[in-house]
């Protein structure tokens, strides 16, 4: 409802950015918001709308965009769990002190040759002073030449490009090895994709 009124009324959109989206985020994920704002960390008011959208919207992906020829429509997600534990498994070893919240994968099943695909999203706490941002700059990782973050329209880095994605990420996401790929934008928003293993295969892997 906030998004609908924001699109039709500029005055309402300004209030929503400063107040309503902030209240929405705190109501939707109170513990996560408390952690994101602890230890002096904070989210600029202008980013509350982007964070609110990230909590409830899977952006999908377009053919020829971030994830090659994969095309998946965006959609609203009624309920999503964001995990700090899973996020830690996605971070490079040099960035273990960073905090990354990652959503459950939005499953897109039976896509023909592509099999089952999972899309995930997330946010890195205090990204502007994070180790992962420092590492991306040190490695001189290039931005994607065309695509922007669907939540805040900022430029995107691909973490697969400098081989910064840990192998443990595929285990946590129930995905095939080396199938995990994700981007992080200048505001710390995460967009990722992985090739999901069939349920029986993923259960066997966990038992091993």
Beginning-to-end CA distance, first to last residue? 46 Å
Q: Rounded to an integer, what's the Rg over CA atoms?
A: 17 Å
Low-confidence stretches: none
Give the assembly state of these chains: single chain
Order of helices and strands: HHHHEEEHEEEHEEHEEH
**How many structural domains?**
1
Tell me, rounded to a whole number, the average pLDDT: 83
Q: How many beta strands in the DSSP annotation?
A: 10
**Which percent band covers the strand fraction?**
15-25%
Give the count of helical stretches: 8
Kindly state the percentage of residues in helix: 25-40%
Determine the structural class based on helices, strands and strand pairing: alpha+beta
Could you please describe the fold and organization of this structure?
There is one protein chain. With 208 residues, the protein is of the alpha+beta class. The chain has eight helices and ten strands. It has helices spanning 2-8, 10-28, 30-36, 48-56, 84-90, 131-138, 168-172, 199-207; strands at residues 57-58, 75-76, 82-83, 100-103, 106-108, 116-124, 143-148, 155-158, 181-185, 189-196. The strands form two sheets. Strands 3, 4, 5, 6, 7, 8, 9 and 10 form an eight-stranded antiparallel β-sheet that branches. Strands 1-2 form a two-stranded antiparallel sheet. The termini are far apart.
């Amino acid at each position: 409802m906030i998004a609908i009124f924001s699109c039709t009324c500029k005055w309402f959109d300004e209030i929503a950015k400063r107040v309503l989206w902030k209240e929405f985020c705190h109501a939707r994920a109170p513990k996560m918001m408390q952690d994101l704002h602890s230890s002096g960390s904070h989210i600029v008011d202008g980013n509350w709308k982007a964070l609110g959208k990230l909590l409830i919207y899977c952006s999908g992906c377009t053919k020829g965009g971030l994830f090659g020829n994969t095309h998946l429509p965006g959609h609203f997600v009624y309920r999503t769990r964001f995990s700090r534990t899973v996020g830690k498994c996605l971070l490079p070893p040099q960035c273990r002190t960073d905090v990354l919240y990652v959503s459950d994968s939005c499953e897109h099943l039976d896509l023909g040759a592509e099999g089952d695909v999972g899309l995930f999203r997330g946010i890195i706490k205090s990204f502007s002073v994070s180790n992962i941002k420092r590492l991306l700059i040190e490695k001189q990782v290039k931005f994607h030449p065309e695509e922007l973050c669907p939540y805040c329209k900022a430029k995107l880095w691909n973490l697969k490009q400098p081989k910064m994605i840990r192998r443990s990420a595929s285990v946590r996401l129930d995905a095939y090895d080396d199938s995990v790929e994700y981007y992080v934008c200048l505001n710390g928003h995460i967009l990722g994709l992985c090739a999901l293993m069939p349920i029986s295969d993923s259960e066997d892997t966990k038992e091993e």
